[in-house]
Amino acid sequence: VVGGAYPYNYTTIFLKTTDSGSNWFNLGPGTVNGLTSMQFLNDSIGYVVGAGGTILYTTDGGITFVNHTSSDIPNGYFLSQNYPNPFNPLTNIKFDIPKRSNVKISIYDILGKEISVLVNEELNPGIFEVNWDASNFPSGVYFYKIETEDYSESKKMVLLK
Predict the structure, then answer these.
(1) Which residues partner with 16 through β-bridges?
(2) What pTM did the predictor assign?
(3) For residue range 56-71, what is the model confidence (pLDDT) as tens digits?
(4) Residue 77, C-beta contacts closer than 8 angstroms, at least 6 positions apart
């Protein structure tokens, strides 16, 4: 995975190759913050850090980066409404974790079938955001759900293509 920033609008993109650079795939938007360092422990687990305390990490090789937006310790668990909603094809989901917790954030179709897992790991307290790229899914109503040992909540979102 490679991160890069365009010099004038400071938008960061992430590219991934699985064939030594012959083909590259855009993994979607990264962050508007400048990035300073990237380290991968193996093909799947990696970290990216940058300005403003930005910490991005992945456990699936770069398809989903979870952005730790603040180390402030929230008063409780919270799942925000995705933004934008309706969306096409990218949306952002913000959530608060008040204590170290195993966190799972999943996407479900209208029939209740789990179609994607965005986060499934132990997180320290803080405020986070994760993007979902629904490019490979049809228009429709979807649900996203956060689950921890102490908290569970789901919300509805609409994909319009």
Answers:
(1) 25
(2) 0.66
(3) 767 666 555 666 666 6
(4) 95, 96, 97, 98, 146, 148, 150, 151, 153
